[in-house]
């Protein structure tokens, strides 16, 4: 899967990942390979992801929108 985390100023992360946990407005949720397409509003919290080497990373967000489609997770943050 490919994860893209972008703000209006910069690209915070772009790369291959094996899992992503997002702070959805109705609760956090995890995206794995071949997840169904979804669009979600994000609330204040951490985007937690594991890259292909197994390294776990976090990006704090104050809110935004996540789009999951065809193994691409696009996160646009405030």
Q: Given the helix and strand composition, which structural class is it?
A: mainly beta
* CATH class assignment: Mainly Beta
Largest sheet: 8 strands, mixed
**Fourth-level CATH superfamily:** F0F1 ATP synthase delta/epsilon subunit, N-terminal
Strand content: over 45%
How many runs of DSSP E, i.e. beta strands? 8
Mean pLDDT: 96
Order of helices and strands: EEEEEEEE
Number of domains: 1
The assigned CATH architecture is Sandwich
Distance between the termini: 23 Å
Could you tell me the CATH topology label.
Answer: ATP Synthase, domain 1
Radius of gyration: 11 Å
Helix proportion range: under 10%
What is the overall silhouette?
globular
Low-confidence stretches: none
Question: What would you say this structure looks like, in words?
Answer:
With 78 residues, the protein is mainly β. It has a single domain, classed as F0F1 ATP synthase delta/epsilon subunit, N-terminal (ATP Synthase, domain 1). The protein contains no helices and eight strands. The chain has strands at 2-6, 11-24, 27-32, 38-42, 45-51, 56-61, 64-69, 72-77. Strands 1, 2, 3, 4, 5, 6, 7 and 8 form an eight-stranded mixed β-sheet that branches. A hairpin with a 4-residue loop joins strand 1 (2-6) and strand 2 (11-24). The radius of gyration is 11 Å and the shape is globular. The mean pLDDT is 96.
């Amino acid at each position: 899967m490919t994860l893209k985390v972008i703000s209006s100023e910069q690209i915070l992360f772009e790369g291959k990942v094996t899992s992503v946990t997002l702070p959805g407005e109705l609760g956090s949720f995890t995206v794995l390979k071949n997840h169904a397409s979804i669009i979600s509003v994000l609330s204040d919290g951490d985007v937690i992801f594991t890259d292909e080497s197994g390294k776990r990373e976090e990006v704090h967000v104050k809110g935004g929108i996540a789009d999951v489609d065809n193994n691409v997770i696009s996160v646009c943050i405030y």
